[in-house]
């Protein structure tokens, strides 16, 4: 099996982004977004999903972090979709319940080609480090629509915003790892329609 690797670049007046992902990697990452806590979350996503990820983002942080985080989600989603290819043989679905100290996050993914985000997370603080916590939803929205995935993330418990956000990213990594993983019983695509 050859590794499923994709590189996407995107340049606008607000951001200049390059993302390379290997879905069949070992969890290595090189991340630089200009927002330290966001870097930490993407590193955790790569490590716990066993994805090799390079993500370089230069954004208009003098405005705020919105364009940087949202556009990183757009490009990451595009890279995931390109890397997974025709979806033949993949499990399609993935889910994970992840504890992180006080936090408990549930994530479910359907790699169906129909984008949708159900994001039920309320963070008690407005910021963690230099990341506005409201941007976490914007990131996952961008990923879900760019990758063409149905994505549900629910925070079942938690009192610490850092732990809650980290649990969301790690649970997404584990659910996505399952969804893009190969199942030897799936000889084409896992759909009665014959297409995803």
Percentage of residues assigned to helices: 25-40%
- Average pLDDT value? 97
Tally of individual helices: 4
What gross morphology would you assign? Answer: globular
Q: Structural class, from helix and strand content?
A: alpha+beta
Strand tally:
10
Radius of gyration over all CA atoms, rounded: 16 Å
Strand content: 25-35%
Sheet bearing the most strands, described? 4 strands, mixed
Task: Write down the secondary-structure element order.
Answer: EEEHEHEEEEEHEH
Taking pLDDT < 50 over at least 5 consecutive residues as the criterion, the unreliable ranges are none
Distance between the termini: 21 Å
Physical arrangement of strands within the biggest beta sheet: 1-2-4-3
Give a verbal description of the structure.
It is a single chain. With 196 residues, the protein is of the alpha+beta class. The protein is 34% helix and 31% strand. It has four helices and ten strands; from the N terminus they run βββαβαβββββαβα. It has a four-stranded mixed beta sheet, with helices on one face. The protein has a four-stranded mixed beta sheet with strand order 5-6-10-7. It has a two-stranded antiparallel sheet with strand order 8-9. The two termini are 21 Å apart. The model has no long low-confidence stretch (mean pLDDT 97).
């Amino acid at each position: 099996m050859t590794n499923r690797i994709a590189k996407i670049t995107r340049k606008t007046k607000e951001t200049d982004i390059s993302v390379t992902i290997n879905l069949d990697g070992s969890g290595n990452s090189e991340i630089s977004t200009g927002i330290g806590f966001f870097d930490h979350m993407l590193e955790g996503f790569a490590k716990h999903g066993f994805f090799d990820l390079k993500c370089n983002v230069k954004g208009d942080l003098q405005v705020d972090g919105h364009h940087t985080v949202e556009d990183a989600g757009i490009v990451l989603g595009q890279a995931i979709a390109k890397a997974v290819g025709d979806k033949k043989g993949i499990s399609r679905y993935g889910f994970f319940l992840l504890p992180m100290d006080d936090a408990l996050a549930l994530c479910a993914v359907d790699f169906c080609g129909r984008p949708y985000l159900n994001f039920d997370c309320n963070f008690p603080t407005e910021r963690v480090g230099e990341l506005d916590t409201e941007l976490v939803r914007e990131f996952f929205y961008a990923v879900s629509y760019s990758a063409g995935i149905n994505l549900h993330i629910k925070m079942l418990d938690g009192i610490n915003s850092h732990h809650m956000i980290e649990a969301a990213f790690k649970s997404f990594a584990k659910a996505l790892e399952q969804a893009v993983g190969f199942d030897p019983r799936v000889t084409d695509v896992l759909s009665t329609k014959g297409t995803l």
